[in-house]
Write the structure tokens for this entry.
Amino acid sequence: MNNIINALNWRYATKSFDSSKKLSDEQLDTILESMRLTASSYGLQPWKFVVVSNPETRTALRAAAWDQTQVTDASAFVVLSVRTDVDAAYVDAYMKSIADTRGMDVSALTGFADMIKGSISHKTAEQVVEWSSKQLYIALGTALTTAAQLEVDTCPMEGFDSAKFDEILGLKEKNLSSRVCLAIGFRSTEDTSASYKKVRLSKDEVIVTV
């Protein structure tokens, strides 16, 4: 248990990455797999995680992120994107996936499917996207924690032009929209932020027992 807390104390939002240090395939795959296994409402997984490996594309994204160096200097850069097509057909496809995975008849899931569809039907398209977008942050938190336990540095990023990211990555045509990004790699020895003491509210201030 101490290993988890030590890892979270070690973690910080890395401001400067050492571009010469690269993640191993195993490290990156482990972080991505933790994101894939992340919890989501009803298990719908309304997302795609876009791993940007092309250097020219990352340079273009950096320009759309107000020249933040993490976009290009981190070993890996992931754009967490929300699906904009979560509808009844998407729910039906999810039910089929459940049935196939668990070896059951999809008709046994009719009640579950109807409940989800009913929930969605009471929301506008924009509200469904907003609801789905919130779930991306569960995946982000999972990735941050997993990386910390691997002693891999990360920086979650909202400071970018989402419309430009979508254009550069061709996300709109794929029924996706960028919401938050994650730079992954190893801190530079010149990143003074690494030495800052972590500032958090005390347990008494944030934990309420009733």
User: Anything to note?
Assistant: The chain is about 45% helix and 15% strand. The mean pLDDT is 97.
